[in-house]
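STRUCTURE:
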């Protein structure tokens, strides 16, 4: 596992926004008072959604909120790679999957486009709007190559389509997530080839169930 450290440059302070604090309290209320620390992961995520990343002052504030030592919150934040420990692009954080299926389908070419348009990986772009990273499997292997951009998956990518997506974000647009070849979910390109009758999976063909006296339900 690679060593993950906090950014060298840190803000002077951190404060929960009103909306973030309300959601944090909602999460804390899910647990017994003596187990409020169990809310650390969702609250770290809420802070990241507020700030774009997780800073040292934010980690200390979370520790105070949950009654946790700073080092315990730091351990969680540095263990899970979904938490960004340095500032990332305000327009787009692009995470290119580089695991085998995506690599075989052209992930390296996607990364080259990102490098040419944005700059070195894991580095905030000069204008502060973009960051790109190579990450491990994101679980969309059938739709390779793919990337997670901010909160959404962009699939069936090519160098041309990832370039257009970056240009769209740069222009202030919001590119639509999903497949770039028009398929739904992980179905074959061009449409489903099996289970094409909706009655097979929409429940309309399910047999009625009746219950006999003093017995378990059985098919009618």
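SEQUENCE:
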């Amino acid at each position: 596992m690679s060593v993950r450290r906090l950014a060298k440059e840190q803000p002077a302070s951190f404060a929960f926004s009103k909306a973030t604090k309300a959601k944090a309290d909602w999460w804390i209320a899910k647990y017994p008072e003596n187990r409020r620390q169990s809310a650390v992961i969702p609250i770290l995520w809420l802070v990241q959604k507020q700030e774009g990343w997780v800073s040292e002052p934010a980690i200390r504030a979370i520790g105070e909120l949950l009654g946790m030592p700073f080092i315990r919150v730091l351990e969680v934040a540095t263990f899970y790679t979904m938490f960004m420990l340095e500032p990332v692009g305000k327009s787009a954080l692009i995470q290119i999957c580089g695991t085998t299926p995506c690599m075989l389908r052209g992930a390296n070419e996607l990364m080259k486009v990102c490098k040419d348009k944005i700059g070195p990986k894991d580095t905030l772009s000069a204008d502060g709007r973009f960051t790109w990273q190579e990450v491990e499997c994101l679980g969309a292997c059938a739709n390779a190559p793919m990337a997670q951009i901010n909160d959404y998956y962009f699939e069936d990518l090519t160098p041309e389509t990832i370039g257009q997506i970056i240009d769209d974000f740069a222009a202030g647009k919001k590119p639509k997530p999903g497949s770039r070849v028009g398929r739904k979910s992980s179905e074959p390109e061009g449409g489903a080839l099996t289970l094409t009758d909706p009655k097979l999976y929409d429940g309309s063909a399910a047999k009625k169930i009746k219950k006999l006296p003093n017995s378990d339900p059985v098919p009618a």
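REMARK: Residues 45 and 83 are 7 Å apart (CA to CA).
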